[in-house]
Amino acid sequence: MNGLQVRDLTVRYGEVIAAEGVHLEVPRGRIVALLCPSGCGKSALLRAIAGIERVSEGSVAFDGDDVTGLPAHKRRFALMFQDGQLFEQRSVARNVGYGLRLRRAANNGRVDELLALVGLESMGDRMPDTLSGGQRQRVALARALAVDPRVLLLDEPLSSLDRSHREELAAQLREILTAAGTATLLVTHDHEEAFAIADDLVVMREGRVVQSGPITEVWRQPADAWVARFLGYPTVLTGEAARILIAAVPEGVAGGWEAVALRRSALQVSVGGPLVGKVVTTRAGTDVLRLVVDVAGIGPVPAVAPSGSAIAPGETVSLEPLGSRMAGLARGL
């Protein structure tokens, strides 16, 4: 297989296991997001892949060639940290060209090409302290790409930015990485960031991979309730409650489901809807009225109604489940 292959990789610090038995693949030209909560071992795993952390067990390979025993500088993997770590005394252009000089590679317009790729073509003479946070991260990305790495490893690249700038740069980052065509492994704890940037998703919990696959498949069918909640489904129904809701879903949507995960907008108020319940609370959102409805046999669940709807606590409403806003689980535990 072309690209990065990690097989049964374990990283230990004495008796502490940071990552255990990790198996993942990053094909050339694909962006894979490694998603898990803080403290689950993702950064230790990334450093082990880069070659700056000792591998306790398992292997790292590229295009089928084992590189586990190679030092970091011989792997041709580029690691970009969350703060970018720019050289403050060097201009933007000199930062980008640093790797070329270090490897004694010819510039031949490569710096200008990369600045254009990241949308900073007119800023080569600027100093890092005159740039915004998003611009600094794009400089760091251009520097990482300068030496044409076989694998690009990104460690929480947007975490130092505020939410609005993170959303803006996430879209730009996907365009840049797609254009570069490099095998990219992105480590993050933010599922929205992963969905905005990546093609494939690897979910880790306590140092182990619990699910992997194309991002839309993982989103539509989480492996279990923990994965579903971590991906942003606040409500998971199991047992009889799940069976009642699944029976109300349009035919063909919920085949094989044993449990069901609901987004906050998975149930909407609809005259004649198959589910009936009593409104517990209401709260005005930016574009909808958000409710909590106590549905017979299911219990309190989130729902939505059109903004401005005259619905008050204590009223009885009918709900229509939206199959596109829920996910089926093979396991509910």
Summarize the structure.
This protein is 26% helix and 33% strand.
Give a verbal description of the structure.
It is a single chain. The chain has 333 residues and is of the alpha+beta class. The protein has 2 domains: 226 residues, Rossmann fold (3-Layer(aba) Sandwich); 95 residues, Nucleic acid-binding proteins (OB fold (Dihydrolipoamide Acetyltransferase, E2P)). It contains 10 helices and 18 strands. Strands 6-7-8-3-9-10 form a 6-stranded mixed β-sheet, sandwiched between helices. A 5-stranded antiparallel β-sheet has the order 13-17-14-15-16, covered by helices on one side. Strands 2-1-4-5 form a 4-stranded antiparallel β-sheet, covered by helices on one side. α4 packs across α5. The protein starts with a strand and ends with a strand.
Write out the CATH superfamily name of the largest domain.
Answer: P-loop containing nucleotide triphosphate hydrolases
What CATH architecture label of the largest domain applies?
Answer: 3-Layer(aba) Sandwich
Identify the overall geometry: globular
Helix content: 25-40%
Q: What is the tally of helical segments?
A: 10
Order of helices and strands, N to C?
EEEHEEEHHHHEHEHEEHHEHEEEEEEE
What share of the residues does DSSP label as strand, in percent? 25-35%
Radius of gyration: 24 Å
Query: Kindly state the mean pLDDT as a whole number?
Result: 88
End-to-end separation in angstroms reads: 34 Å
Main beta-sheet strand count, sense and barrel state: 6 strands, mixed
